[in-house]
Amino acid sequence: MMPWERFARRRLALTRWHCEPENIPAAHQQAFDRAWARQRQLEQAVVNMTRDEIITDDARNAVAASLAPQLNESPFSPAERQAVIAHHVHLETQFAEIASTAPVPDEESVLRWYQQHRAQFMRPEQRLTSHLLLTVEQNDAEVRKQITPIYQQISNNRSAFARLARHHSHCPSALEGGRLGWVSRGLLFPELEKVLFTLQTDEISQPVETALGWHLLWCEQIRQPAPMAQEEALAKAREYLYRQSQQQWQRQWLASLLQAH
């Protein structure tokens, strides 16, 4: 079995059956064998179409980086590893070429789809946020004592936040005076998000404890949910529909390739 076959067969088993190929349950063995035979046939046919194309260093490096976690788990020699990477470069090259020939959605279709899905194009609630962090290194009580006077200074004078963040904060945002920018839900630790989205405009949080340490949050402004500008929404709709068109085009091409072989 070629290196790319060993790699693809193992990845198929791990992805769909969550186990090594040799541990496929007997009840699922036939289904696995059929899926593997189909995948092997498709990959071989695709690669045969691009085998003579020159592989650039950029393409090789990009594929090597994306496959590294799985390749590192497999007992491949350096030469076998490079063979697997080359195989996947050929695959991705052909898929990209097929995708580039997919029909581009016309403006009427884009507008119609946008109008039917207008509710999806809402800007979420956002908070203009600044953040100060004191990390805990097995001395929680001492850090708690340190953050209390910082909180009191900022409570009395909001303009002190940037200076104190630059001087004390262990968050990378300290370089920007603690400014995180506009923050939506889902971007912060749950403990911090819960606090931030209960603050009013220009309100400072009480010190908040997480596994990282003690935090202060300043909600400078609140931006309520609002419809996205139509021009921006149409651009996103157009991008989405084109991506769908490319995926469908690729599926149709793979189906025709399978029939031809």
TrEMBL record:
Keywords: Isomerase, Rotamase. One of its GO terms (molecular function) is peptidyl-prolyl cis-trans isomerase activity. Pfam families: Rotamase. The keyword Isomerase applies. Its EC number is 5.2.1.8. It is an enzyme of class 5 (isomerase). It catalyses: [protein]-peptidylproline (omega=180) = [protein]-peptidylproline (omega=0). Residues 124-221 form the PpiC domain. InterPro entries: Nitrogen_fix_NifM, PPIase_dom_sf, PPIase_PpiC, PPIase_PpiC_CS, PrsA_foldase. Belongs to the PpiC/parvulin rotamase family. NCBIfam families: nifM_nitrog. This is peptidylprolyl isomerase. It comes from Kosakonia quasisacchari. The gene is nifM.
